[in-house]
Amino acid sequence: MRFETYVAARYLRGKRKNRFVNLIGIISVAGVCVGVITLIVVMSVMTGFDIELMNTIVGNRSHLTVYARGDRTIEDWKKAIQDIEKVCPQIVAASPMVTIEALLKNGERTTGALILGCDPKLQSNVTDLEKNLSNTEGRTFGRGELPKEKEIVLGYRLANRINASVGDEIVVFTARSTVKAMLGKQLGTPVWLKVSGISQARMSDFDELYSFVDLATARMLKGQEGVDGIQVKLTDPFEADAVSSAIRDARLPYIGQTWYQDQEAFFEALKQEKLVMFIILAFIVLVAAFNITSTLIMIVMEKRRDIGILRTLGSSGGSILLLFIIQGLMIGLSGAFLGTLFGALLAYNLNPIAEFLAWLFDIDLFNSTIYYFDHIPVQVVPRDVFWITFSAVVLTFLSTLYPAWSASRVNPVDALRYE
Q1: What is the pLDDT of residue 182?
Q2: In this structure, is the dihedral angle defined by the CA atoms of residues 378, 380, 384 and 390, taken in order, positive or negative?
């Protein structure tokens, strides 16, 4: 064991005249520990939310949507799928889609909606449409089925707004083009559609805005033969950019828009929020680091005589500097180690703890109707844990520099003059 490490450990273990210094040291360890625990738990929950939201978005949106160049419709969508499959082997499934802005009316209730026309069977291979129909099982809506001709599937919240259930017939108004001299677009003739199912995507914009019909019904509502685009599912959603580039490089008359581009602002906001939260919570560790600074300053004041003796016996200023840096790091590393250990344990067991507290205090700590999840999503990422621990150690190291430098500047003559 190095001389500096041995002396630093003795200083931490030894009895002091002023017990307040011991208390401050314990508080410093506890402060670092609490800061690291908080950072690990919060970052793990935020990462869990990111992953759950990303899985929900990827499940309810196509990985890539292919459009015709020049804002035109795709007349032969089967040929278009064959064309893009030839240049993109990553494609797992594809489905045509038509988007329609509409007003839905049930009794006295009316609301705006976005109707997605699709081939229901193909669409179920691309997104979670069929699976989302079973999410409402056990509710008052009924189970529901994929839409057939003159049928419609409503989003969960959309159905709530117009008080519609499976089996109801609702009125659909669309801005279908009825070309007449000088009149342009007029409100089309209302169409009655039967509600065949209620989809709960657990994603706000889908549940509030989207409804689904088959292609024949979409053509009737919009008055066009072609489709607006092709929705594509890939072997890996993160290959969407590469597939879009392959379609462009093959000089096909199509352009691709990825799932990330559809939600880019949302994902960037999540990244910024996570970064800001990390910075804010790091101040807890920073406060603990200031405690370490004050602890070392008090130890230096208490050990001036010992420092003077060590300097007289031949210890260099660098050796004294290193001694107190090691002492501060021992405090910080103890807190960081305990914080990492307890933080990981707390994060991995967060849901059982939350359920126990909810039972104990009879409160709902995590309302699934608000957050769309029936549990707290937690994902402990080793890389995040490493950076949190590393940041705590760096802050601890910086907090030791001034007291250690101050100790190395102690004049042995002044320190021993009155001893």
Answers
A1: 36
A2: positive
